Amino acid sequence: VEAPCLRPDGSVLDTAGYDAATTLYYSPATELHMPPVPTEPTQQDIADARHLLVDDLLGDFPFADDASRAGAIALMLTPLLRPAVRGHVPICVVDAPQAGTGKTLLASIAALVATGRPAALFSAPRSDEEWDKKILAQLLAGSTFMLVDNCSGPLDAPSLARAITAEIIAGRVLGETRNVEVAQRATWAVTGNNVQMRGDLPRRCYWCRLDARCERP
Predict the structure, then answer these.
(1) For 68-81, what is each residue's pLDDT tens digit?
(2) Which helix (H) or strand (E) holds 160?
(3) Global pTM?
(4) Sign (positive/negative) of CA torsion 95, 141, 203, 154?
């Protein structure tokens, strides 16, 4: 990881190097300058953090309702909390009535703030076999924030539904004969216009809807 995150016991991993409690190696990005994280934050610390997140980062996005704003906050916090979660986290579906509303921008900001780098962005594969290969390849590359961008048409991908509830993904490396196993600790987001989820996916998602209520967002 390249930015501080939480351990399962609630403490903050902010010391560079290997962390035995999480089996993570924290290598801060060279351009990251983190102030000390207080172990007992004051009410002002909390108010400042909330203002930075809700007003400065998310204040200009046209959320359709309060639930969608809460979903965006969840997406921002999930990559930081993911190492502390012993279990699964759902997919965030960021959708809107039309293009240009800020769906990809919202998901990209969440990835950049939490990980220091853009999300692993790709289009939805056409077949479930391609989904299987794409998921394994991205996890092998070490991607921790996956963004399925501009999803068009109904999304029904059993491999994606399985990956969301799996702790370990196993498969054959593309172009090789060896099989591998890799941990699934990533944060997932899907963007699109009026996204439709099929199969088991609706039960494994939460929604964040943007609506600028104008012809040209």
Answers:
(1) 999 999 999 999 88
(2) helix 158-164
(3) 0.88
(4) positive
